[in-house]
């Protein structure tokens, strides 16, 4: 727009259209202008809905939150700039000095770090326990325990938590039961239907699905807790970028299709790997030889997840030969991408552990975790057949 003096002034009016776009517009605006102080009052007092400053909220984040709310059967969830942002909002936004929290002993690496380093530094005591063993979690309880944080399927050993037992324990003791549902996704598992009080996601993984966005999400069953999560996120600047939210929305439109395809391929791959002579063992929750098969079947309703772990015969040398020969598969420590990715815990996620601690978890130099993507299943199985044969030629 030009003013009377002919200088350029914002806003430039958009060309009118009798029709409307079919995609959500991207709104990168940091600030939102109001007409009058009275109009701003109406917004702040909640009499009308409106945005003010994008750290406090913006349309693209609200679209992502509404999508996740619908997937989880929840209301009022908060979107954060990464999955760890969501973990931080829950742990730091809801706990206080003097509290105690129990975490699963195989949580995501940075969540573990927060339990071991950051929370204790702030006066919040922490314990780790096996979430598959309710007696072990019960033994870790203290009078100050406020929260239990677990993942449904552990990384990379794919053990399944005793969600029913933990939910009952948390209900009995009045603890907040927090479930990081990243691996299982709301298509595989809906924690609120199993007694969870709070659900966390790294949207970065399967939900957005293309390895080009980092985002997280946290939602509580109790609206008062959602308010606290929101205020903490706004105050500490965990707010996501509109562009990332816009990309995530696009990714989530195909999430159910991608999940179904990836988990079906994962089930096939698990059985295929089990038949290869170079493979010492395969871990997949829905296989009959998995130690938690019955629990996985009950919790995941016949859907697995897209993750398969396996152990190659031969050590680091075989592992090197395998990633070299696995043409078209990225050796990269992420999961949930459209392409299949390989993670080698001994050299990445679990490299800080001592060899003895890794051995206790069964993480040998031949151990790989596979995040199965969307390749043609037959072609994918062929790549694994070839790469395993190249890595373990004697077998
Ligand atoms: C990746 C991941 C996170 C952290 O998410 P970011 O988006 O990478 O910050 C948290 N929990 C689990 C289970 C994850 O896999």
UniProtKB/TrEMBL annotation:
Superkingdom: Bacteria
Signal peptide interval: none
Region Disordered: start-end pairs: 1-23
GO BP field: transsulfuration
GO MF annotation list: carbon-sulfur lyase activity; pyridoxal phosphate binding
Transmembrane residue ranges: none
Alphabetized InterPro entries for the sequence: Cys/Met-Metab_PyrdxlP-dep_enz, PyrdxlP-dep_Trfase, PyrdxlP-dep_Trfase_major, PyrdxlP-dep_Trfase_small
Cofactor: pyridoxal 5'-phosphate
Gene3D superfamilies associated with the record: Aspartate Aminotransferase, domain 1, Type I PLP-dependent aspartate aminotransferase-like (Major domain)
Residue ranges of coiled coil: none
Entry GO terms, CC: cytoplasm
Keywords on record: Pyridoxal phosphate
PTM sites of type N6-(pyridoxal phosphate)lysine: 205
Family: Belongs to the trans-sulfuration enzymes family.
Protein's name in the database: Cystathionine gamma-synthase
Source species: Pseudooceanicola lipolyticus
